Amino acid sequence: MNLAKPDNPIENxxxxxxxxxxxxxxxxQECIAGILANMELMxxxxxxxxxxxxxxxxxxxxxx
Amino acid sequence: MIEPESIIDIAGGVRxxxxxxxxxAKAVLEDVSRRNSVYNCFTRVLGESAMSAAAAIDQxxxxxxxxxxxxxxPFAVKDLVDVAGLATTAGAKMRIAAxxxxxxxxxxxxxxxxxxxxxxxxxxxxxxxxxxxVNPHFGTTRNPHDVDRLAGGSSGGSAAAVAAGFVPLTLxxxxxxxxxxxxxxxxxxxxxxxxxxxxxxxxxxFVEILDTVGPFTRTAADLELVYELLSGSTVSGSTVSGSTVSGSTVSGSTVSGSxxxxxxxxxxGWFAKDACPEVIDALDxxxxxxxxxxxxxxxxxxxxxxxxxxITAAQGGALHLDTMRTQAMEYDPAVRDRxxxxxxxxxxxxxxxxxxxxxxxxxxxxxxxxxxILIAPTTPVVAPRIDQATIVIDRKPASARxxxxxxxxxxxxxxxxxxxxPFHVSSGLxxxxxxxxxxxxxxxxxxxxxxxxxxxxxxxxxxxxLMARRxxx
Lengths: 64, 473
Fold this sequence. Notes:
- The complex is a heterodimer.
- By secondary structure, chain A is mainly α.
- Helices cover 70% and strands 0% of the residues of chain A.
- In chain A, 19% of the residues are buried.
């Protein structure tokens, strides 16, 4: 079943669709642009923290 | 602006009978009634209860009873702090009709027990999620040094109320920098205490593991006095006598550490990047005055900022999820969209950020084996204009409001005590410096702050129009 709706980016994104269903959130149309902009910022910060994971082990080893 | 300016002098006058608490309270209430519309600091003014509390203080003095170290000191609180009988709005329209608090927050009770007189509640960013105090329900709080500029946030009402000269003491909260950022933009002293050092009981939560509460004042000595009273600890033992503070429900931190010569360094790397020339100049002057040229690098400070951002979004989103299911459209749109995005943040990302937090706190602890006090800018710029959308970060335009906390967020994640100190640049606008220390070394921190204040280098100055008015009088 194709749930995609051209005017609703969240419903076009399988991951976001799952999350909103899981959270039982009905996202008002007015919020979508703002949410997506904020999610992009969060991805930016998440990449920085994810990149650190590699050096975390190394730092622990150095501490030891 | 009431005279004298400092809390210690006001309380001294009231305790000795040379000042009347009722006259002070009356003067503050009249001043707020006359000028608050210019700055929009106060959301509610508690005239009747303030006059009644002030009269009780005067009565105690007449009877020879010491009202306490804050006798008659007028104060006000950010509108996320419980005041018995009032709804705690947390800056949200949807909470105006919330059930009233049944008792005062611990920090309010402690100040009242020390003789302080509560004047009212103060504006903030909705649910403390912002650095601007641009609130669609309660209006924008304006910077008393230039009313076309931001006061900072989220405790902007708390900072502006002190800077505008309404009261000498306010309380705010600091999760990611919400005391330090407005203290910087409004030119005040403030402190984000170490995690757990001051009770948050009776305050509206935002991010449980980052939330702290603390004071704004006009002098470093006042900051130390109020910190002692709020934390239930004795920092130096030199400023508080005859304290009648009771009902301590939280064990205060022990801060009587070694008082030797502090090992001081300037934070480099992330904390030097993007700072405007005025901030760098302020740091240069302080370091030169101290005769210190040590530089320290806080490892992974940039990542710490990102982790703090993610933890805030995720925990804030989780806290508000139930309410957003039914009342999403009643939120400030800017806050709502961030909270919704935070609620949808995958758990794995949140867990990464939390794992990083543990690592980072260990690294910072290690750094304090080599140093006692670390100095850094509070904000990268002086107060942006209210209509100014961007500042330059990483040589690119970036949201002014989202980036005012780039230097405060990493220190929040570390959970350490950080004071904000005022410096005035040549333009007349203030800018803040952060002085961070390890938990337990607050005595050393306050001693240094008082020395720098006495030198005249770091000082809270009233806005020019208040100075002019005082000269005219």
